[in-house]
Design brief:
This protein is mostly helical. The chain has seven helices and two strands; from the N terminus they run H-H-H-H-H-H-H-E-E. Helix 4 crosses helix 6. The longest helix has 30 residues.
């Protein structure tokens, strides 16, 4: 059995690989068609013009679904490992809520392009990266509370390092974006897809775009830390039948059947 076939480890693997592919494929398509500059464009700019916009949208929607599935499994795993610790249970519920909000933000980014509905796109970005960063913080705190009983200290330090990477990217992107869109370098920069290195504001633009790519890959790196944990969990569903047929009958019975929902032997 391969390592990604153990438990549910294929979920975070699929999330990371698929999300990275959505960025890379959209970037390559936009570059080949000369829709953006080759040197570090905004991720959103690579999904603004058809046909890469269609590819970008559908792939990010699938990433959002994989993200929700991954976060739900993480929630169930933490709960199963700490059924009597109220503090961890409460934080775990908060983490799931934040994670689902972040995934919803990713759907907004995928379906509302930056150059068409800018403010809606920004709301989606704030949900994805802002709320997502808080989700990472909650999961890091949970990792701290569960070590060394449940897992080693190493995983806590790794997640803390990735969290700091994420936060530094957010700060860098926020400051450079505020400077870039302050009006000092012209107006209507949101619609601008091509930049000349000699233009004013180019440095702030590059810092902002590099920070965005760094932020995106810090998120993907955080989910990579779930792989080992997910190798040790499977989910099962209980099927309850209320009758022998689907007709309305006065007599009914309940049959419980353990059905495998997701297995690591796929």
């Amino acid at each position: 059995m391969w390592w990604f076939q153990q438990g549910l480890s294929f979920l975070p693997v699929a999330l990371v690989v698929w999300s990275a592919a959505s960025f890379v494929f959209s970037y390559i398509t936009a570059i080949v068609l000369h829709h953006v500059d080759p040197l570090v464009p905004y991720i959103s700019d690579t999904g603004t013009i058809p046909p890469e916009r269609c590819l970008f949208g559908i792939m990010l929607n699938i990433s959002s679904f994989l993200g929700m599935a991954t976060m739900y499994v993480r929630y169930k795993q933490v709960y199963a490992l700490n059924p009597e610790k109220s503090k961890i249970i409460k934080l775990n519920k908060i983490g799931l809520t934040l994670g689902l909000m972040s995934c919803f933000g990713l759907c907004i980014i995928a379906n509302f392009q930056k150059c068409i509905l800018y403010y809606v796109h920004v709301v989606g970005a704030c949900l994805t990266f802002g709320v997502g960063a808080i989700y990472m913080l909650v999961q890091t705190v949970l990792s701290y509370l569960m070590q060394p009983e449940v897992h080693s200290k190493d995983i806590f330090w790794i997640r803390l390092t990735v969290l700091l990477w994420c936060c530094s990217s957010i700060v860098s992107m926020f400051i450079s974006s505020v400077v870039l869109y302050s009006g000092l370098y012209g107006t209507n920069l949101v619609q601008k897809l091509h930049w000349d290195p000699q233009e004013k504001g180019y440095t702030a633009h590059i810092i902002s775009t590099v920070s965005e790519w760094s932020l995106a890959f810090s998120f993907l790196s955080f989910f990579l830390t779930y792989i080992r944990d997910f190798q040790k969990i499977s989910l099962r569903a209980v099927v309850s039948l209320h009758g022998q047929t689907l007709y309305n009958t006065p007599q009914s019975f309940v049959t419980d059947e353990q059905a495998l929902l997701i297995a690591g032997s796929i």
